[in-house]
Amino acid sequence: MVMECHGPCCVGSADSCKRRHGLSTCLSLSWDCEVTQKVLLKASLLESLRPSLESADRKEACKALLLLCDAGLMERITCIPARHASAALALAERAERQRSGAATWKELLKPGPLRALALKQLDEESVGALFRVAAAFGVDVVLLDSSCGDPFHRRSVRVSMGQVLRVPCAMGSLEELLPQLLRDEDVDAVALCEDEDESCVYLDKLSTIHHRWVCLIGAEGNVDLMACCRHRVAIQKVAKGVSLGVAVASSIMLNGLAERDGRTPKVSVEEAFNRTLMEPMLPETGGERVM
Fold this sequence. Notes:
Blueprint: E1 2-4, H1 14-21, E2 36-42, H2 46-53, E3 65-69, H3 71-78, E4 88-92, H4 96-99, H5 105-108, E5 114-119, H6 124-136, E6 141-145, H7 154-159, E7 169-172, H8 174-184, E8 188-192, E9 201-202, E10 212-217, H9 223-228, E11 231-234, H10 246-261, H11 269-278
Parallel strand pairs: 2-3, 5-6, 5-10, 6-7, 8-10, 8-11, 9-11
Antiparallel strand pairs: 1-3, 2-4
């Protein structure tokens, strides 16, 4: 059974709405009302999703339609067993800016400390997974190369658990964007490398990082992009050549960079790099690489 919400959000009648779910007769939806048209979710999810559905600071209520259904119907629609996962669906029309390539990267950069993630040659599922990782480690913006899958594809949205709708992103050519970013915005670049690449340094040996940085994922083998990055970093493993998978490797990288950027004085990229070079390195043992 589906309970239809008329107006911004009114489940059944106003009286039954209050009686069944403790709702006022209206809920303002936090999404752009020209974008989101309908939302379908299980009634049991209403309370946990209420903060995302309500927007107390909006002056005008959006006219999106909110629908509640039982777990059985949601399972038939999504083919996801109700006992395994919760589900919420939304019908939305993309804003013109999203259809033309999301926001421009300059619109998304902020002054002061900056954490950015740049992705290349990843499919929709990997893109979604990395948006979850980005959200977990406080990334401010995700920059996607045109070779990546669409971040707003249904697979990306599902795997990201909705984080693609929360973490700002820009799309374009990284070969054009990354050099501009490093030249104009005082940003340091760190590239994830395979541990078999002798030109890189292990993450453990990287003592500090500039407080404005971008981490490049998926560009192994791209000479031009790798040349832009001051730091080429690998994750040290007991068994070399064993793949961790892009989501796990990216999680380790972003966690390491987030820990290190807090230790760095707010200086220029050049000064931060020079201080890193002057840090005492541990002696080389067991075939480990040092800077």
